[in-house]
Every structure is written in structure tokens, then in C-alpha cells.
């Protein structure tokens, strides 16, 4: 059976109803009469030949067809927003780069990875979003983001059409607030026996590597805190609550960014950083610049 293309006004009304969960709230958001929205929704269902909603109490729930239609509507209207942004930016001297930053990625590492975009011939306007890894991959797949920076590759077997690019592989440093670092720098790493330490939680890929390193060296530190959020861990470390691990970087950068000093190098523990991109016909010049800089080893630890 041949179907005419959907009426995009009807599709937009459906999209708003799905987001609001009721025709009444959708009508209020659209500034239309409830009957108008209801009629347009009925016409769309007739055009599709499928029910898009079922009534559950006072709230509308999407049918399986409705969920499928919503996934496409999300992409359609997101692309519409991006088209408008692109048209608005066409008169601007800057290109827009929407970056997703995994909440497990150290902030100064994100800065170092993105710093190359400030050196392009074409000025870049960075729009940075921080979220959990899975949420960022979903936004990338929907083209809400141009690239995701994270500490893990896309798992094999994923249905998302996204691709991992290894940016760098860095050894780790143990660092701490100046007074604390001074106390534990001598005889490293044996000095860490009983030392106060801050660690990422066990769902972090780095945690297992750190635990293995402690075991190989027969070191039992005093774990005074475990953190899911890397920025919070660094804040506690800056305040001197405990020593902590950070990716290798120039010592001056560590002092400026973290208010910390080097205690010792841990070359056996290495952290990987990735740029994850989606399949696009036109590659973003800023993303390409990041990858090109990495391939030239411009982002290696100094």
C-alpha cells in the first residue's frame, strides 16, 4: 500500500502530545484548542493506519507504533532545530561544535583534548554537555552532539551507529595537596602503605587497574573516599582529604588545574581516552582537527 508523506504539522502535534503526556497540556503548550489537537492527532493516526496512543488512566501512553513514530519524530525535529542553528550561524565567523563529555573524564583532560580547536583557522564555538556515558551515546546517535569524549570505547555488538577513535593512552600519576604530597613522596610507591587515598568507584574502568597495581606491590592504602564523579573526587583531593590518581600531564598543569603536586608516576596503570563520532557524510572540521592532532602525537603527556 502506498502512503502519502505524513503531514508535518500533524506530526509535530503528535510529538508535543507524546512529550507532554496529555492532549490538554499539549494544547496549552501549542496555544490551541484541545479539540484542534485531538482532531489533528486522529488524522495522523488515520494516515498511518495505526493507533499511536492508548489511554491509561488520565495519561496517554504510546503504543509500539507510537514509540517507533516518536523515535523518528525526535530526529526530524532535532534536525529541524539544527538546520535553523546552521542557518543562523551561516552569517557568523564561527563554526559550532557540540561536544559530549563523559562525567568520568577528568576536566583538565577534556580541556587538553579540545584545546586544539582553539588553534583552527576557522574560529570554533564550543557547546559542551556533561552527562553519563550511555546518555551521551544516545544523544550522539540522534545527532544532538558532534562528538563524545570519554574514557571507554563503544562496546562491541551495540546497535548504535557510532564509532570509537583512540585519542591517547596515558600513564597515571599519584598526586595530592602540597602538604600531603610532601609526606608520601619519599620511597614511593612503598610510602603508600596506609596512606589516605581517594579512588573512583568500582564501576569505573580505571578502578580495577588501580586495585591490581596495589595488589602487585602488596600495598594496602587507607581508602578514605570513593567517588563516581571525577570532579568531586578532585575537589576532595585538592582539599587534602587524600592522595588521588590523575592522568599524566605537565606538572605545572596539575598544580594549576588540581592544586596538587606529584607524588609518583604509575606507568603500569594506563588510562585510555576516546573520541566517539557518528556516521556522517560531512565530517566536522573541528572533530577532524582533534583526531589529526592526536595522530601527530600532539596530545601526548609532556
- In spatial order, strands of the major sheet run 4-3-5-10-6-9-7-8
Instruction: Compute the separation of the termini in Å.
Output: 64 Å
Supply Rg.
Answer: 25 Å
Shape: elongated
CATH class term of the largest domain: Alpha Beta
Low-confidence stretches: 298-302
Order of helices and strands: HHHEEHEHEHEEHEHEHEHEH
Named at the architecture level, the CATH assignment of the largest domain is 3-Layer(aba) Sandwich
Total of domains: 3
Structural category:
alpha/beta
Layout of strands and helices, then pairs:
Blueprint: H1 8-20, H2 23-30, H3 34-48, E1 53-56, E2 59-62, H4 64-89, E3 95-102, H5 107-114, E4 124-131, H6 133-141, E5 147-150, E6 162-176, H7 178-184, E7 196-200, H8 205-216, E8 222-227, H9 230-238, E9 243-247, H10 251-258, E10 261-278, H11 285-295
Parallel strand pairs: 3-4, 3-5, 7-8, 7-9
Antiparallel strand pairs: 1-2, 5-10, 6-9, 6-10
Relevant terms:
D-Maltodextrin-Binding Protein, domain 2; 10 strands; elongated; two-stranded antiparallel sheet; 302 residues; alpha/beta; 3 domains; 25% strand; Arc Repressor Mutant, subunit A
Task: Describe the model.
The protein is α/β, with parallel strands linked by helices and 302 residues long. The protein has 3 domains: 8-78, Orthogonal Bundle (Arc Repressor Mutant, subunit A), CATH 1.10.10; 87-168 and 273-295, 3-Layer(aba) Sandwich (D-Maltodextrin-Binding Protein, domain 2), CATH 3.40.190.10; 170-271, Periplasmic binding protein-like II (D-Maltodextrin-Binding Protein, domain 2). The chain is 42% helix and 25% strand. The strands form 2 sheets. An 8-stranded mixed beta sheet has the order 4-3-5-10-6-9-7-8, with helices on both faces. It is elongated and about 75 Å long.
